[in-house]
Amino acid sequence: PGTGKTTCAWIHPDGERVLYASTQDDPEARAKQEAEIADRESGNERRYAWDYDEHFDLFEYDRESGAYTNLTNTLGYDAECAYSPDGKLIVFASNRHAYEDELSAKDREKFALDPSFLMDIYLMDSGGRQVRRLTDVRGYDGGPFFSADGKKICWRRFSENGATAEVWTMNVDGTEQRPITELGAMSWAPFFHPGGDYLIFTTNKHGFDNFELYLVDAEGAHEPVRVTDSPGFDGLPSFSPDGNTLAWTSNRTPQKQSQIFFAAWDDAAARAALGLPDADAVPAVDPVVTAMLDNQETVPEIRVADLRHHITNLASDEMDGRLTGTPGEGMATEYVAEYFARLGLQPEGDDGTWYQSFEFTAGVALGAGNRLAAVLPEGPASYAVDAVWRPLAFSKMGKIETAGVVFAGYGIVAPAAPDQEDYDSYVHLDVTDQWVLVFRGLPEDVTPDRRQHLARHGSLRYKAMLARDRGARGILFVSGPRGGYNEELVKLAFDVSLGTTSIGAVSLADAPAAAWLATAGKDLGELQATLDTGAPMMGFALPGVTLEAEIWLDNRKGTGRNVVARLPVDGSDMHAPAILIGAHVDHLGRGQASDSLAKDDEADTIHFGADDNASGVAVVLELAEYFADLEAAATPWGGKRDLIFATWSGEELGLLGSDHYVKTWAAMFGTDHDIGMIIGACINLDMVGRLEETLVLNGIGSSSVWRALVEQSNVPIGLSLSLQDDSYLPTDATSFYTHGVPVLSAFSGVHPDYHTPRDTVDKINFPGTERIGRLVARVATKLVQAAAPPDYLKTERPQGEGRVGALRAYLGTVPDYAESDQPGVLLSDVTGGAPAAAAGLQAGDLIVSLAGRKIENIYDYTYAIQALKIGEAVEIVVERDGARQTLSVTPGSRE
Question: Sheet of 89-94: strands edge to edge?
């Protein structure tokens, strides 16, 4: 820009923008610059020292327009920045928190002498929003760069005294921070090779002034390897995107002036020196997985010993509960893939691998910049996030303009019902463009029948929807002294794929709520006590109280992976439609998921998931071995179509892996719905390890062949069977059924250990699981040998459209529960002959309004259906092919 100090440039992947750090917006920049130039012209020489000017900000320069954009604009040194490979994120170093936090006297004194002492690594989106701090230790963390796949960050961490530095890596969300060098020298400026399994960096291990380039593997398992051997300085290395060229800075010039050097890079030599496999080599199998598989020789026969072997391994400590996107899930999927490989199956994942990866929202955390401030009659007040207030996961993000506050009791609107009067917290209360303060939960001292009536209208999301529909700018939930909650503030927990609302939603501690209510001459406890009787109460405004907020949440992304294999019959050509046998491999980890049923004393312990669903995966592995042996035998066995064996991840988060699989096929073949031409039938095994008396087989109604086929196959097995027509199930079979595939889903029954750490191997009924495996083998054999795959029958969905409560009104829609950033409810199916089908709704429609009510998420949709009157037509608005259509639907009765 011509003004200020400028450094640390990085070119955006699109080539049109340049990121850099500069003091160009410092009001004193020009004066400081002129003074510096004059000092140099006077002949004054100073020892070189880097300047951690608190006016350094990150800027983006648009090459086409010539415009500059200040991305940070925060007091403190913001520099050492880089774009992520997809250009969506920026990682940088900053000591900004030292200017915002209250420092101890010791830290304040040290910071004045050395501003780098409190440098940390930060991440933000490329527009400068959602800034979050990734490191938080004393000492200089700086020089961060992304790996080529965008999943890792490398940086250098100085010791607290600044004498040494080591190379560190972490995941992009800040987890798994660890050093990969231990040289006890000044090791810094790391950069990933595009292959991702090694880095290059600078170190002075050979002498204080002698910096050389070294390599280290990404795991830090191998002794670092020297690259350069030149007296003086060799440092600041980076690879070209193809990994064939190295650029670095060296003063190996005749004048000993630093210049940029290029060299051809020999990746094969680097890998050999570090003991890494060739770039095209198959990655080595985790030795723990290898040991597990080598521990017992399995046989083609479906037997107890083999099932015990697989379930014990999958439900072991090492798998750590197999939560989607974690190392435990990675080990479990590697176990499955390696077993398939040993059986001689063909990989059917991405790019010829065993794995099919998918991205998902792994959790939610507070972003940077959250702020809640009030103006009260006695003056302004601000409140500490996560201590006095906390955003809710479904809140609108961004700045929420200043608004007044009104109190609306419990924030409930419940219509009258037989033997129940109506209840309305908003009678004669105008909340337009206001914050609405309400109590959590329900009135405590009413009859059970009254509570049951109000409970349908008492969730946080429902209350937020009511406030939004009445024009509120935001809603504040307070527990109150009579609430009985373990914590005053609502936990920040992510509920998978169920969308946000368009107003601010905040949990507030009792103390500020009490202070605000006092401005109206009201007492928080007395108000709650009166409301708890169930007596109606008019809401009121809080005079002289205004509130403004800025809410930023960080939706942390993760990657899960399915394992998919094919067993070709009669040669290598694909015989379709294939028969798919699958089970979900993921579970709940250490109970991080919201649907853990662990007791308080079981918090943060491994949920082993022996039955759910190591048992199902074990049966899939046994069936794969059984059929691979049949196909390898010299005697033809009559197979006419291929078998696909798959283990899905993300089932516990909402059928994410299986949904990704079917949608990938649908997109590949240009159809939105029916993949029956690819998959002829799906057999699903979910919790088949705790058989007591009866095996439940769901999906019987999805094909006319199932009942007879199952009963014939069961004759020599002799299991007691419960054959259920329902094909809309809370398991992966539903992903296939809603896309035109007949399904059969086996389930041995629920038990008290479901979704707890007590679901362990010792409770598995191994003989019963073996019998289930033998039954499925017989069913699958008949399917593979049949001249044609089973026919597909569409059945009515017997349960409510939403996930919240029973619904009397009936439309016949099947929402797509896979996560989506689109506001609205996407339909994966419409039941034939149902009111929705008669109205013209289709799979793929996005519902945005029902009966005049805005639909932003599945909760909105469920609550809207609850308000419908049977037989009375209402308008439903959908988005289809980019355009909105208004249809008329007449709800039917479910009873």
Answer: 78-83, 89-94, 120-125, 132-133
